[in-house]
Specification:
Blueprint: H1 11-24, H2 28-42, E1 50-52, E2 58-60, H3 69-78
Antiparallel strand pairs: 1-2
Length: 81
């Protein structure tokens, strides 16, 4: 199943995904999906600060608190300072 989505990504991430898609001869969306799946498989859940609870929600690993979109936005805005 495919979902259509509009996302905002950094220019360097777009350039990389676009070049990857071109090199493999696949659409950009397929390239992004493939890269995300590879990144997910490469991550080590034991060392991650985030995990998924039994309901499929993203939670802070140690505290077990649900990470809301507002919390994620606040954290990403902190990186801009």
């Amino acid at each position: 199943m495919k979902t259509r989505a509009n996302i905002n990504i950094d220019n360097d991430a777009y350039s990389f995904a676009s070049a990857y898609a071109s090199a493999k001869g696949i659409p950009l969306g397929s390239a992004v999906s493939e890269l995300l799946r590879r990144a997910e498989q490469a991550s080590e859940p034991s060392s991650s600060l985030l995990t998924t609870n039994r309901r499929g929600l993203l939670v802070k690993a140690k505290a077990g608190r649900i990470v809301t979109p507002e919390m994620a936005k606040a954290l990403s805005e902190d990186d801009l300072d």
